[in-house]
Amino acid sequence: MPRTPRQDRARATVDAIVEAGFIALSQRGPAATTTRHIAEIAGVGVGSLYEYFENKEAIFNVMSQRFIKDTVAMIKPLTPTLVRMPIDAAIRTLLNEFKDFLEMNDGRYLKCVRHAMAVDFELHLDPLFQVLNEVIMRYLMSHPETLQIRRIPAMAYIGINGGIFAVIRHLSDPDPMISFDELADGLAAMIGHYITQELKEREALAASET
Amino acid sequence: MPRTPRQDRARATVDAIVEAGFIALSQRGPAATTTRHIAEIAGVGVGSLYEYFENKEAIFNVMSQRFIKDTVAMIKPLTPTLVRMPIDAAIRTLLNEFKDFLEMNDGRYLKCVRHAMAVDFELHLDPLFQVLNEVIMRYLMSHPETLQIRRIPAMAYIGINGGIFAVIRHLSDPDPMISFDELADGLAAMIGHYITQELKEREALAASET
Amino acid sequence: MPRTPRQDRARATVDAIVEAGFIALSQRGPAATTTRHIAEIAGVGVGSLYEYFENKEAIFNVMSQRFIKDTVAMIKPLTPTLVRMPIDAAIRTLLNEFKDFLEMNDGRYLKCVRHAMAVDFELHLDPLFQVLNEVIMRYLMSHPETLQIRRIPAMAYIGINGGIFAVIRHLSDPDPMISFDELADGLAAMIGHYITQELKEREALAASET
Amino acid sequence: MPRTPRQDRARATVDAIVEAGFIALSQRGPAATTTRHIAEIAGVGVGSLYEYFENKEAIFNVMSQRFIKDTVAMIKPLTPTLVRMPIDAAIRTLLNEFKDFLEMNDGRYLKCVRHAMAVDFELHLDPLFQVLNEVIMRYLMSHPETLQIRRIPAMAYIGINGGIFAVIRHLSDPDPMISFDELADGLAAMIGHYITQELKEREALAASET
DNA sequence: GATGAATGAGCTTTCATTCAT
DNA sequence: TATGAATGAAAGCTCATTCAT
After folding, report:
1. Could you tell me the pTM of the whole model?
2. From A133, B130, C125, C135, which residue has the greatest number of CB atoms within 10 Å?
3. What helix, strand, coil percent values describe chain C, rounded to 5?
């Protein structure tokens, strides 16, 4: 049974407002993004903003949640493919998908994410970390030998945080010292080498114990 | 039109304003930091702000420059010590010094740095990247065998950006999954393993070529 | 960003603001006329001023234009009557109408015009000079013999500027040495005598040439 | 006995401040003329302004008085010469002297006088009107036949006010329709014709009475 | 429900004036 | 006496929010 037109229209308006929020934020930054701008871009009256959102901050909150939701939705379906790849290819694939995702719509998300902290995006980061941790866990379980390596939590933490930030910074850098491929290759090599080296050390240890 | 301070009293006022800027920024964030707050914390009249700064943004600019200057001043003298250490110890030492630096004055700098992008800290980041690159280069030259490893620029980029961000995020995280020591150990191990593995591969390659 | 009024209510607000501008300007002068005063007198919030005007100066500009428009609207319909009168009666009539116009609404316009230069009234004076020049030209054409007199442009310039200023100064003077009727009579006689004398000289010249 | 150096210096400082006031006012207009500017141009500290003047307005008052004093000092010595000239030559001479006076020092006085009303110059105009009235009276007494003409007070009022304003407006007009000579000639002719015509009418009247 | 005119608290900034030096 | 750093009241202006239509 379809929803009543009333609800559909309301949902469309909310979507238009959130979309407009992203456009305004990416175009003018958080300080210059006014409710008037958002309403104008959304094609609704300022009053309508307050029909659907408690206040301006609530719009940013929903934007934040939607950004994270979209990111998770981008990553989740990749998991089965990623876990079957060699680690370096998996990392490169994930980074490239992330890059494309951030650069969609003239880099709207990329521009927004740079201002994220100014509008408390951080509050809704959890699902993103969860899905990335899940990818990592599924990967490790698909490659049981890697379960023996040390410092898995720390590596996940560093890989996720360092990786996300390095990519965002690189994409935002008008004149980066290295190419994106070099960055992705570097991250892949770093993780790859860590695993290789750990496995070797485990092996050597096992051999000496025997 | 702001004038350059010529008297001692004037210089003290300028310092008080910049200091107040850090306190206000760390307490309330950039959007809620008003000229009145800064003046109040500095213990001066609002008018005095404009005796020495073109406008509010100019205060943030000077703060940004001072933060970077202080960071560089913290790192630079460590260089001789760091380059003589094993890589993992060097990294752990640097990260711990960075942590202490950020947590000085009740974490004033840490709280400010989270809002960095909102106040164009990026514009003045260069000296920091330069000094960190210099540390890396000096380290590599003190350990000539490491000069053979591949992807040095990418590793420097990843190490600096990923490292800085991972530390900041960890210190800002009210409930981190890992301890700071685990984080530092992880970063050290990751870089350390990368170098070890690279050296081994070089060796193997050299052996096979003979 | 000021918007163009689309609703009736909006138009009424704009009018109230301009009206309040005249009242405030006449009461306190340009330096002491603040946006808050204007808003208060208009019975609207300060914010409303900026819904319809770019800034404070824009209000003064519109006031200036409206003043000139009103003056022109007062003079234009008089033209047919004036051109049929003897010159001295025409001048006296025009001056008296101008006096009444300036003294309307407790002399609001008179008080404003004294501060004219401080708010760039001059920028919009052209239409006033045009209509006065047209009156003069129509008068001369209705009295073809006067077309022979010399120095018509200079006389127009002097008559218009000197006349306007003499009237304004007289009306503003708390203790003038002469009555307004004496002033009007004097201006009428001066212009009248000039024309008479010129015509006589032309006549004498024509006679001597025969 | 010479004044003490102390008093001399004080007088020089006062002069420098008033001079600076004229320069600032002519350069930037009344709204943009700050005490800081005046002090800077005068080469003294802001504090010194308040050693010699109650407040900013007092500076403008003294400026106003000095302007009028200078104008009077320019006109007074001309009187003996003027009264011996034919009326039109006298008027042209006076207007040209006035023009030169206003255009001295890159038009400093001219630029100031346009802002006069914004700073209450008008308050001190009396001596100027007195001296101009005296010139007129002396002229009339030097030409006793003119004492018979009617409307002398009105003509003086119109001539003085209309004349001053017409000259100031003309000199300020970037693109005047007539030349200054034409303006001066026009004013001279207008007054000249008035007198001529009046004398003729008196004569005719006298003849008819006989 | 949708609108946008209206609001006013509160922002940044200026500048005449003061007063310790 | 002369200074200029310091002041703070008050200016122009913005914009999230409200509410009559």
Report:
1. 0.89
2. C135
3. 85, 0, 15
